[in-house]
């Protein structure tokens, strides 16, 4: 069944078919959310929220764009909204989220037997640099680079999702790459 056939049947009352859409698009939505949030639990939660929103707004889907483009837009907007809301959290709350513990909970770090602890710290530090650099990009650049690199979408697909031209997407990706290179070189120099 095509997406449009499934959607038509769901809107006409066969709500069990929504499971097919979830199975088909869950990996795509999760990758997109993960690309913005950098945290598996947050991306899982947001993926569920995206599908709730999709279900609630499905009758309004007009088919002007493909369903995949429509759901990408919802996932990107939900991710950006989540980032905006979470940026209001205090430093301590963000650290608790990063390290995955609650107040009063004992913190334990498990290190694989075969891994050098220094290497683990360096890898974690590099991952944090990339996340900080990515998060500091303007929203349109961040969206273009995440859809390009995390979801491996073509510039044409990204243009449809962002409601812009392919040339604009190419420029956004190039500016994002240049900005990331610059920001990451500054992080390395600070070390």
What does this structure look like?
The protein is 73% helix and 0% strand. The longest helix has 25 residues, at 166-190. It folds into two domains: 1-90, Orthogonal Bundle (Rna Polymerase Sigma Factor, Chain: A); 109-191, Arc Repressor Mutant, subunit A (Orthogonal Bundle), CATH 1.10.10.10. It starts with a helix and ends with a helix. The radius of gyration is 19 Å and the shape is globular. With 191 residues, it is mostly helical. The chain has nine helices and no strands. α8 crosses α9.
What name goes with the CATH superfamily of the largest domain? RNA polymerase sigma factor, region 2, helix turn helix motif
The main pleated sheet reads as: none
Mean pLDDT across the residues is 81
- The number of strands is 0
Strand content: under 5%
Determine the structural class based on helices, strands and strand pairing: mainly alpha
**Rg, please?**
19 Å
Features:
191 residues; mainly alpha; Rna Polymerase Sigma Factor, Chain: A; Arc Repressor Mutant, subunit A; 2 domains
What can be said about this structure in brief?
By secondary structure, the protein is an all-alpha fold. The protein has helices spanning 3-11, 18-37, 40-57, 67-86, 91-99, 117-135, 139-149, 155-162, 166-190. The protein folds into 2 domains: 1-90, Rna Polymerase Sigma Factor, Chain: A; 109-191, Winged helix-like DNA-binding domain superfamily/Winged helix DNA-binding domain (Arc Repressor Mutant, subunit A), CATH 1.10.10.
């Amino acid at each position: 069944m095509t997406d449009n056939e499934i959607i038509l049947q769901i809107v006409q009352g066969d709500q069990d078919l929504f499971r097919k859409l979830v199975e088909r698009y869950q990996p795509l939505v999760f990758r997109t959310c993960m690309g913005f949030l950098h945290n598996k639990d947050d991306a899982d939660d947001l993926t569920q929220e995206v599908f709730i929103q999709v279900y609630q707004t499905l009758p309004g889907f007009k088919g002007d764009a493909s369903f995949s483009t429509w759901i990408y837009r919802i996932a990107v907007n939900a991710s950006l909204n989540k980032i905006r809301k979470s940026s209001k959290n205090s430093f301590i709350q963000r650290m608790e989220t990063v390290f995955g513990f609650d107040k009063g909970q004992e913190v334990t770090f498990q290190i694989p037997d075969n891994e050098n602890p220094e290497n683990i710290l360096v890898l974690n530090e590099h991952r944090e640099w990339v996340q900080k650099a990515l998060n500091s990009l303007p929203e349109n650049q961040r969206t273009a680079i995440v859809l390009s690199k995390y979801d491996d979408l073509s510039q044409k697909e990204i243009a449809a999702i962002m409601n812009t031209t392919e040339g604009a997407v190419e420029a956004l990706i190039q500016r994002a790459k240049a900005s990331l290179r610059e920001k990451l070189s500054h992080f390395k120099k600070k070390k």
